[in-house]
Each structure stands twice: as C-alpha cells, then as structure tokens.
Amino acid sequence: METAARADLLITDAELVATVDDARREIPGGWVAVTAGAISGLGGPGDPRPDAERTIDARGCLVTPGLVNTHHHLYQNLTRAYAPALTGGLFDWLVTLYPLWARLDEEAAYVSAYVGLTELALSGCTTSTDHLYVHPRGAAT
After folding, report:
1. What are 27-80's pLDDT values in tens digits?
2. pLDDT (0 to 100) of residue 1
C-alpha cells in the first residue's frame, strides 16, 4: 500500500496493528494513516510515516479495522435486564417481552437506537444492521 503524502489522521505507536488482511499480518508498534476516510498507509516502527493533520498516540492499544455486526435488535436494549424475562428459555423470554415491545413508541425506539449504537461504537463496531420488526406506536408512515 502506498502511503499518502499527507494524511488526515495518523494513528501511531500501537501496541499492535491487526491488519486482518489475507496474510493476517500483525504489526507491533505499528501505525495507520487515514485519508478521506480510508486507510491510506500502514507500517511498522521503522517505516517512514506520512505527515498528518491530526495524530493519535495509540500506545497500549490494539488498532484493528472496524468490526461489523450483521444482526442486531436495537430496541431490545430497553428490556435486556427485565428480571421476569431472565430465568426461562427462549419461548418464555419472547412471551414475557413481546407485550412490552408492543407498547414501544417513537421515543423508545430513538433512545434504544442511540444507546445501542453508542455501545456498538465503543466496542469497535463501525457497521451494523438493525432488525426492527416491531413498529413503534405513533411512528410516521
């Protein structure tokens, strides 16, 4: 990969850069350059780094591509700790929670999406899809 002459962002001195490429390369002390939202260069401690608008020191951190979550139900964040649903099997869980989900409104859908997407981002997930098969009361059509 060619390194951009000037990157928007340079992440430096990572404990480990996991490239997740076909060779499954791992680069201790590595760096990653990002230009226009895409990786524009990477290297190890001895490789020349591009100049950058912004630099992040990643000492002690693992740097990896954004993770992908292909199946999520963001609205379920609101009921995941509902005690009556925690002790049975799947059918018990569904029978207990469907009546609660049936009463969701637009604000509940918004809050649950906000919380769920924030949690995903904090865990390293940058891409997700949601399966919202219950439709909130009062939702715009």
Report:
1. 999 999 999 989 999 999 999 999 999 999 999 999 998 889 999 999 999 999
2. 55
Least Cα distance to 112 among 85, 86, 81 occurs for 81
- 57 with 12, same domain: the answer is yes
Sequence length of the chain is: 141
Listing DSSP states for 57-123 in one string gives E-TT-EE-PPEEEEEE-GGGGGGTT-GGGSSS-HHHHHHHHHHHHHT-BHHHHHHHHHHHHHHHHHT
Residue 4 structure tokens? 């951009």
Q: Domain residues for 80?
A: 67-130
Contact 35, 4 (CB under 8 A): yes
